Description:
By secondary structure, the protein is α/β, with parallel strands linked by helices.
Amino acid sequence: MAIEINHLEHVYNTDTPFEHKALHGIDLSIPEGKVTAIIGQTGSGKSTLVQHLNGLLIPSAGSLDICGFHIQPLLKIKDVKQLRKEVGLVFQFPEYQLFEETIEKDIAFGPKNFGETEENANELVRKILPMVGLDESYLQRSPFELSGGQKRRVAIAGILVLNPKVLVLDEPTAGLDPQGAKEMMSLFMELNQVQKKTILLVSHDMEHVMRYCDHVVVLDHGKVLQESDVKTFFEHPEWMMEVGINPPAIVRLKVMLKEKGFVIPDEILNEEELIQCIKGQVMIHE
């Protein structure tokens, strides 16, 4: 079942001098079982939007339907506890999710909060650690002694251990080296393709968006500026440039080649096809 967002609005600090409207009438239908990218400049409303998906924020107006839950203004927090098992949110800054004295306790907190015994919760922790590239030698370490990349892996493990149907990832590869980022994205794609989890990816990395996502939503000043399948989106570099987003390298190269007089079909989005296209035109000119 798709995630349906209808006329969603959110206002921070209502009825104070600091009142700020962060979302303006968002209407979206996010496809089930797909990987959807949420992109936009800092301050465009990305994090505000995704924090509504598991009830961390409640709408000021409008509504959301997700995993059988209907979220609307004035909904009580107790009514969304179960939703947070179905929709896992990994914050941009992992420190926001880490609070226990050991990694084992931190990851086990979620399962225990939903009724698992300590023994079962700790068994789940041991099963999930290898998925995020950690081993049992980390279990008794403090999460606050870890590197930024390791903290991120622990935060992701704390969400995956609940086996959510929907995974919301806010800049999930920030702080990881290129190999670590590739491993983490491969994990998310396996969760999507094998376990059929719906994934929402908030990212500034357009290479990741082009390579891994199916669907793209562009936010700008709290409104939906563009929405399309990923192939159509990257056929229109002007959509990214309009909101100051740097296109992937191959898209930038296509723009440069077109300016030099090459005829490059819009649908070419991989290196092999681009090389063949250029090669053919160079040979004709020779």
